[in-house]
Design brief:
Number of strands: 0
Order of helices and strands: HHHHHHHHHH
Structural class: mainly alpha
Distance between the termini: 42 Å
Oligomer: single chain
Radius of gyration: 18 Å
Helix content: over 70%
Largest sheet: none
């Protein structure tokens, strides 16, 4: 509901009612507050993605030909596999988009259990791109994250609206294009 209607467009009372709770304070009781609820949603989705990404990172040898592309693949593909494995259950990507647009994403997305693989991947990417100044590297990583989240959120929506076009095979083809686009943006001088 939050992902579809907006972070602040739905009341905790509506959330409790939709969850079948008679107690209008159910969100506060179970999660402390709205931020706690959002944190629980992110944990549910992102901790498994973090584990999958971490496994992918362990197979990458820094400095090898193609290691930057493999790192970007480790960033992108866990989201894609999740879209494939859990069709229709990926509203959380829209939630992440809303968090990013509201400026609330840093404290909610980048904690240890959810993002240890992102932190490792960032260090590995930094090693692959030593020619970039630190500020330029951080800017490009921010652009990468923004592009990825907005693109995956759009693809999730399109899969629900145009399922005949947005098959698993088409999604995998598009993900390879996204990986190539991100790599190009990271290395462009």
């Amino acid at each position: 509901m939050i992902a579809e209607k907006g972070l602040n467009a739905i009341s905790e009372r509506e959330i409790a009612r939709e969850a079948g709770q008679k107690n209008n304070s159910a969100v506060q009781y179970h999660f402390g507050n709205r931020e706690g609820l959002i944190s629980a949603i992110l944990d549910l989705r992102m901790i498994p993605l973090n584990a999958r990404r971490h496994d992918m990172l362990m197979t990458i040898q820094p400095g090898q030909a193609g290691s930057l592309e493999a790192l970007v693949g480790a960033l992108v593909m866990p989201y894609i596999h999740h879209l494939i494995e859990h069709p229709g259950e990926n509203y959380y990507v829209s939630l992440i988009t809303q968090l990013a647009l509201s400026g609330q994403h840093q404290q909610l997305l980048f904690d240890g259990p959810r993002s240890s693989s992102l932190q490792l991947m960032t260090r590995m990417m930094r090693d692959c791109l030593p020619e970039l100044e630190q500020t330029e590297f951080h800017s490009r990583m921010n652009f990468t994250g923004t592009q990825l989240i907005h693109t995956v959120a759009l693809w999730d929506l399109l899969r629900r609206q145009q399922s005949k076009l947005w098959t698993n095979e088409y999604l995998l083809e598009q993900s390879q294009q996204l990986i190539a686009f991100i790599v190009g943006g990271l290395i462009q001088r």
